[in-house]
Write a structure and sequence with these properties.
Layout lengths: L6 E12 L3 E2 L5 E2 L7 E4 L1 H16 L15 H12 L7 E4 L2 H9 L6 E5 L3 E5 L5 H7 L5 H10 L10 H14 L1 H6 E3 L10 E3 L2 E3 L2 E6 L3 E7 L5 H7 L5 E19 L1 H7 L3 H13 L11 E11 L9 H5 L2 E5 L13 E5 L2 E2 L4 E5 L1
Length: about 350
Amino acid sequence: MDLNKRYDFVFFFDVKDGNPNGDPDAGNLPRVDAETGNGLVTDVCLKRKVRNYVTQLKLLQRPYDIYVKEKAVLGRAQYEAFRDLGIEFGAETRVAVPEDIQGLLKDAVLPEGLTFEEDENVELVVAADVDLKEVKSGIKDLPKELKVYISSSLKGVKARKPKAEEVEKGRVWMCQNFYDIRAFGAVMSLKSAPNCGQVRGPIQLTFSRSVDPIVASEHSITRMAVATEAEAKKQGGDNRTMGRKFTVPYGLYRTHGFVSAPLAKQTGFSQEDLELFWEALQNMFENDRSAARGLMSARRLVIFEHSSLMGNASAQDLFDRVKAERASDPAKAARDFTDYKVTLDGKELAQFKTVVPA
């Protein structure tokens, strides 16, 4: 494949007796279009699985490190970028917060460059590149004791904003070292770390939508144990607790994606990176097994290769050439991929990956 060309693609995956992407705001119910009943899977859900696959394959070794990974503190990578580049901003300042100030600080709207953290310690964090003039101006309306505390915390802090050329160097360094930034982009203009700018990634995905409406099945489940002594007393010695679990009996999902050649040049996204992305789409479910997700499988990937940098056909016209139709009786509920056939220009596709001219 040639990254002097644009690519558009259609990706099919399915789920059997699992929840492909629960909605935390709806009790973890499978996401559904309320008007049509079609199932939905967010773009960030699939990106997460791509990131996880690359993590397992490359073990976070540069240049295949992952910026948005589990338990990551994003600003640490940006500090590392400037340290590696030899650009000095000093270091962030952490000041312990007295108990009588904690409530005021927690509820306050702090100016850019200051954050309140409650992890192992309760601290006021002053970013390395904080604008001290803006901070002093931004605390004018805070309670007097809070202003005094913040002003005293800023004594001895030496900071400066990175120059435009330094931000650009930081952006390039982050792209070179983190696969997901090169692929998907990132917002790295954080308040709590040196500014590395913003990156618009060459790979973009739509929400996935099931080919047919789905039905969310609800199941009662039991646990034969409790977590605490208090729960044991409440249960009267039975120690049986109840829960709920939601699954989709079967759903075939379709998503659309785009690979921009101009944006790939901007982030340094290479041909090897692109091949790794196709590989991740095919194998990411194989290394992401969970009882909650049931059996999820990648089924078909149709890649349209354009003949030029900007493309030579409408993405929508290309996508319309790909159909997913019922192969079995449409009056009966689909319960397997064999109940469907995926076609390109009317011809059924038998292999996972198909590359065709746009």
